[in-house]
Amino acid sequence: MATAVEKRSWFTRLLGERSVQVALGLWIALSAAVLLLSRGTLPLDRPALARLGTGGQVLVATAQLVVSLLLMAVTYGLTRRRAVPDMASRAPEAAVARREVAALWAYGAAVLAVGQIVGRWLFGAGIGLHLNGSLFGATRQQTPREVWVWALYNLIFYAAVPFLVFRARGYSREALNLKSTNLRNDALVVVVIFALEAAVELAGSGIFKLTGHQMLVGGLLSFVIHLLGTGLPVMVFIYAILLPRYARLTGSSAATVLLGALSYAALHLFEYWTRYDSLQHALLSVIFVVLTFLGPGLIKSYLTLRTGNAWVHLWAYHAVAPHVTMDTPLIVNAFGLRP
Fold first, then answer.
1. Quick one: three-class SS letters along 227-277?
2. pTM above the 0.70 mark?
3. Which helix (DSSP H) or strand (DSSP E) does residue 198 occupy?
């Protein structure tokens, strides 16, 4: 006879998770804090959302969260019949995992800080995880040199160095979530999630205003540049290294996914649209970083957890959607690609 726990739906069990309850409370608290702190005006320079009021921008972030949750539900449906990899078993014992997480975040904080210094010295603006203009509209013109420096800086310090260090420590590609255990199902997840997300993004993208030549050349350039500058760095730093250690330390799938999402947001603290010139602006910047990137971070984390393969999230929800579907016009402009 089924127990009361077994009779509960997966949704009820999910809402019963302490980490999920904390996350819901945090989202509500941050949304309310925006209305209190902003006083009707936001200091964030996001041209694509300039016509929206404070409440409108909170609603946009909430809508993105809802889309991410729906994509997570689709992912569950696509993977429910497969053996879900035990990600925690890929990480070392808890004490070692804790030290590795602390060391990696200390290193990541240093890379973020140095990127601000180097970027302002070279170009007058810090190096973050997104180019100026990505997703929310450009606030200044960038040169091809700046774009390539941005991409190579992030590739070397967020992806290449951590990957080589952890490989040297003896972790295999499977232990780093970089090897498929079910290629057929992984491919199915990539195709379906990519198709759904791309359809949503293309509906509001400016890519169709470009000529065929600009779409082809600009799209290929955008794919390569963003793969190097944000796709691979995020994949290695968070989803290859941190996520298995979160699974080991928490013992909870929900907590692991939420920590992965918060980690994704943390790497974006220095976006081109954030401002830290006053306490009010700093608080609003941090709040909107969380509201903006928590949803995408959730689906990236969930895709990786369900498949045990960090490449899945990269191809399904990062490398092409949104950085080709949405950011191709940005690259066309930066490189001066003529019609």
1. HHHHHHHHHHHHHHHHHHHHHHHHCCHHHHHHHHHHHHHHCCCCCCCCCCC
2. yes
3. helix 183-202
